[in-house]
Amino acid sequence: MDTSRRIVIVGAGGRLGAALAREYSRDFEVVGFNHAQLDLGAPEQLRSTLGGLDFDVLINAAAQTNVDRCETEQEEAFALNAEAPRVLAEICREKKARFIHISTDYVFDGEKREPYAEDDEARPISVYGESKRDGERRALEANDRALIVRVSWVFGPDRPSFIDAILKKARDEEEISAVADKWATPTYTLDLAAWLRSFLFDRAEGGILHLANGGECSWQEYAQWALDCCHAEGVPMKARKVGAASLADMKNFIARRPVYSVLGTGKYHQATGEVPRPWRGAVAAYVRDHVR
Ligand SMILES: NC(=O)c1ccc[n+]([C@@H]2O[C@H](COP(=O)([O-])OP(=O)(O)OC[C@H]3O[C@@H](n4cnc5c(N)ncnc54)[C@H](OP(=O)(O)O)[C@@H]3O)[C@@H](O)[C@H]2O)c1
Fold it and tell me: How much is the pTM?
């Protein structure tokens, strides 16, 4: 354990933040703040709490992640997703600490049909996407060594996500369906914690980095594979097949979602020589280790 290196995690109560806090606390000193302990909407609290703390790296995994809420609560979305990252970036610049900020595939409009690269133009089609894109820009303007890490379809053991919701349904119902005409790539929080390790202390350059598991899928393919893994592991499930729904059928969605938002990880490969494992392997590992 290297206690000479201290990592602050903002959003340590969230799906990704909790995973990062647990994984990194095995090797480093980690100070985590959940929502109740630190409010992104209170810049003066960010300054007073973090200003008095010594740390080498700050990872911001907190955000307003409710995509539909952002459409109706725009001011809140920009305060939490755009202004707070700017303040955090500034605090880190003053402290000469590394700032790693988590962003999203929803900064893209989804018109491409091949993976998005980091320098593809971000043209969001929702308030959530706009607020996250502004957060990236403001963070980089305030601190050009900030590292913006875009991820997609985050899943992991610390908070339920799409995969858990669909498996919960599949336990009780024979007929289930998921959207078949929207594509991205799942990102396993435990894999992300491993990929990010080489960017914590050793690489000082800032910019944007895409991180996700390999390949691409629709929500239907993602759900079908998760279900297949459950059957293979002997987890009792009523459903065997996931039917196809269309994005247009999702009448409860308020915000527009990009149809295709696969993140290309070529830059990560160039920087590290590593390739993220394919999403099917990550989902199989999650089901094996965390689904009962
Ligand atoms: N989930 C995905 O599929 C996905 C996809 C692409 C990108 N991302 C990005 O990945 C990052 C992590 O998301 P996640 O999946 O871990 O989502 P999450 O579980 O919703 O985590 C977000 C965390 O932010 C906290 N938070 C919300 N408002 C806050 C505030 N005013 N002050 C302080 N904390 C606040 C939440 O706390 P409470 O819940 O207690 O309010 C929650 O713990 C985010 O930047 C998100 O934009 C996620």
Answer: 0.98
